[in-house]
Amino acid sequence: VLQRELSAKIILISAYDDFTYAKEAVRVGAFDYVEKPVDYSYLTGVIRKAIDHINQAQHNQEVLKRSRPVLVSSFFWDLLQTPAEDSRYFLSDSVGYLEIPVQYACYGCFHIEVTNDIEARRRIGIHRFHIRMMELKDQVAAKLTDFPFCYHLEQRSSLTVIIGTDIATDACIRLLNEKLWELVDEQAQDELQLNI
């Protein structure tokens, strides 16, 4: 039952008063063990406790589900900042759990920094600056549609982009350079000055 329904709680009710029997029941996954004759007020308390555990587990699952984008972002920051040998041990378990695609032949990473961020924030205001950063992210995504995997890591005034593709490495680099130069040319007269 517990293998099919992880949130299930089993309350075993039995006439056996042998403690080893109760201990074995809990060891194999029973939530609690109630001896006969049943004290219904005690059983009601056990049921309430089981319901509380189920509700807490469901809440935790929902929080974890909502946290997935943060976990993925954290994974990529750790990947970029951890030495290769260390990342092999610390991050490899997360790849499957977070459904990070690892099937591509070529991966690349580049960083776009707004070099005039302080001046731009003063000139256009902080709200407009953040809107422009979101638009920049959208423009980068539109430029990189040739790459089947594209993940953006956002910071205050920069974007780090990780791409994955099956294009050969040399061709991948050429295509990426072409797309990035197009972006730089388009942004030349913009209020944000970029360094890639």
Q: Tell me, rounded to a whole number, the average pLDDT.
A: 87
- Label the structural class: alpha+beta
Order of helices and strands: EHEHHHEHHEEHE
- End-to-end gap: 55 Å
Helix content: 55-70%
Main beta sheet, described? 4 strands, antiparallel
- Spatial order of the strands in the main sheet? 4-5-3-6
Strand content: 15-25%
For the secondary structure, the number of strands is 6
- Radius of gyration, whole Å: 27 Å
SS field, number of helical segments: 7
Low-confidence parts:
none
Shape: elongated
Short description:
It contains 7 helices and 6 strands, in the order βαβαααβααββαβ.
Walkthrough of the structure:
The protein is α+β, with helices and mostly antiparallel strands. Helix content is 56%, strand content 17%. It has a four-stranded antiparallel β-sheet, with helices on both faces. Strands 1-2 form a two-stranded parallel ribbon. It is elongated, with a radius of gyration of 27 Å. It starts with 10 loop residues before the first strand and ends with a strand.
